[in-house]
Amino acid sequence: MADLLHPAAIHHLPPFVTAPGQTDVLFVAMAIFVLLAVIGVGIFYLKLHSLPERMAHRGQKMQFQIVAVLGLLALFTHNHAFWVAGLLLALVPLPDFGTPLSSIARSLDRIAANSGPETSATLAQRVSPPAPTPEQTGLQPTAERPAAQREA
Questions:
Q1: Where are the bilayer-spanning segments (predicted)?
Q2: In this predicted model, what pLDDT tens digit does every residue of 100-120 receive, in sequence order?
Q3: Contacts of 81 (CB under 8 A, 6+ apart)
Q4: What is the DSSP letter of 58?
Q5: CA distances from 149 to 131, 134, 135, 136, 142 (A)
Q6: Is 19 left (phi over 0), alpha (psi -120 to 50) or beta?
Q7: What distance in Å separates the CA atoms of residue 74 and residue 82, rounded to the nearest whole number?
Q8: Does the structure show a pLDDT above 50 at 1?
């Protein structure tokens, strides 16, 4: 009973059974396959996980940063709601508020640089133009006009 496998019986065994002292080829092949499968699934998971960030990369910087934070929260907490929120935020283009606001700020800077501390008389002259003289209008001065023209 010490020797269960007789040398003549080895030829009748299925190919996945190895002889004593031989390398188990099926085990080595399966170990390599499992290792490659785990690495492949990990790469696929991380590629899929970074999908919202790659989509938001073409957008604005602020949108990209928010999506990246949501992606990290989803990765570390395993909460899929963060990933879905990041994906939806990456799909929706945010309106550009920065450009008009910076244009307004530049215009206000130019206005503030052009107007220094002025008196109210100087501001009144700049705001309302002076009244036209009688020579400019083509009318006679009030004292020289007849009374009928003055009352009308």
A1: 25-46, 67-92
A2: 888 999 998 888 887 666 555
A3: 74
A4: T
A5: 20, 15, 17, 18, 9
A6: beta
A7: 5
A8: no
> Tokens 């080829």 appear where?
25
* CB environment 68-92: b (16+ within 10 A), e (fewer): bebbebbeeeeeeebbebbbebbee
SS3 labels along the chain: CCCCCCCCCHHHCCCCCCCCCCCCHHHHHHHHHHHHHHHHHHHHHHHHHCHHHHHHCCCCHHHHHHHHHHHHHHHHHCCHHHHHHHHHHHHCCCCCCHHHHHHHHHHHHHHHHHCCCCCHHHHHHHHCCCCCCHHHHCCCCHHHCCHHHHHC
Contacts of 49 by beta carbon, 8 Å cutoff, 6+ apart: 71, 74, 75, 83
What is the amino acid identity at position 28? Answer: V
Amino acid at 60: Q
